[in-house]
Specification:
The protein has 251 residues and is α/β, with parallel strands linked by helices. It folds into two domains: 7-142 and 207-249, Rossmann fold (3-Layer(aba) Sandwich); 145-206. The protein contains seven helices and eleven strands. It is globular. The relative contact order is 0.16. The mean pLDDT is 97. The protein binds S-adenosylmethionine. Residues 3, 5, 17, 44-46, 49-50, 65-67, 70, 91-92, 107-108, 110, 113 line the site of S-adenosylmethionine. The site of S-adenosylmethionine has 18 residues, from loops.
């Protein structure tokens, strides 16, 4: 299975991007969500990196994620701060909500982990169905250049109790027809030069053209689509921007 975020991948995510670490997204979405008076959903909530600052700002946020290991970190981080939030194990295309939400926010390019156009469309329709009338969807994607020019290689992190984690990423394929880039991720956990554990995960991302995603949102029933570059609301994306944000409303 692709994009599993298993035990070692989750540990790496948590070490590399601890709770509260921002790429500019935490501040941007906090500002965009200011004044939201109903529940907010974060699909693919992960370790709570983004969820927790939103809760701390007083927003009512819940989330889901496919990875039990990522959700375990999230629960621990919530407990550590005496915070509570509903976080469930579910996927983009099969999650269930009790009540419609006022906003859905998908940071960190997680939407691109759905590596087919069809799955992306299913998720957009589901997001639309999960929103109250007038509710907003906010999501960001990595620009095409950062995906197709990606330079995978070896990275290392110090792990708890004197360990070392290595991630060796190797490019597998770039499918320009399906707009999907694939890598193999080999994670290793070492202690005093002894290999304790290894895990292999296939990682894939589907890139979306800006106008393609705008039209996909409209086809899913959204209106008032605003596309912004570099986390500056309303600024037309520039070719050098590291992130592109979409905001759209359910009529
Ligand atoms: C880049 S992390 C983002 C985590 C968090 N939203 C953040 O901003 O730090 C991507 C997350 O997407 C989750 N994920 C991958 N595929 C998924 C799917 N089909 N449905 C739900 N979650 C998924 C992974 O388990 C991982 O936690």
């Amino acid at each position: 299975m692709n994009n599993r975020y298993g035990k070692l991948a989750s540990l790496v995510y948590h070490l590399d991007k601890p709770v509260g670490r921002s790429f500019g997204d935490v501040e941007y979405y906090l500002e965009r969500l200011q004044g939201t008076d109903g529940p907010i959903l974060e699909p693919a909530v992960g370790t709570g990196r983004f969820l927790i600052p939103l809760l701390q700002a007083g927003l009512d946020v819940r989330g889901f994620d496919l990875s039990v290991e990522m959700l375990d970190y999230c629960q621990r981080e919530l407990e550590h701060r005496a915070l509570t939030a509903s976080v469930q194990q579910a996927g983009f295309t099969d999650y269930v909500l009790d009540h419609p939400v006022q906003a859905i926010v998908v940071p960190a390019g997680s939407f691109q982990l759905l590596d087919s156009f069809e799955q992306g469309m299913v998720a957009l329709h589901r997001f639309h169905a999960s929103l109250c009338s007038g509710g907003r969807l906010l999501l960001d994607v990595d620009p095409v250049h950062s995906i197709v020019n990606s330079r995978p290689g070896l990275r290392t992190w110090s792990a708890p109790s004197d360990g070392l984690i290595t991630l060796n990423a190797t490019a597998l394929s770039t499918d320009f027809g399906a707009q999907v880039y694939r890598e193999m991720h080999r994670y290793e956990l070492w202690e005093q030069g002894v290999l304790l554990e290894t895990q292999l995960e296939q990682f894939s991302l589907r890139w979306w053209g800006i106008q393609e995603l705008r039209m996909a949102l409209e086809q899913a029933g959204f209106v008032d689509v605003v596309v912004s570059g570099a986390y500056q609301y309303g600024k037309a994306p520039h070719s050098d921007d590291d992130s592109i944000s979409f905001e759209a409303r359910k009529p």
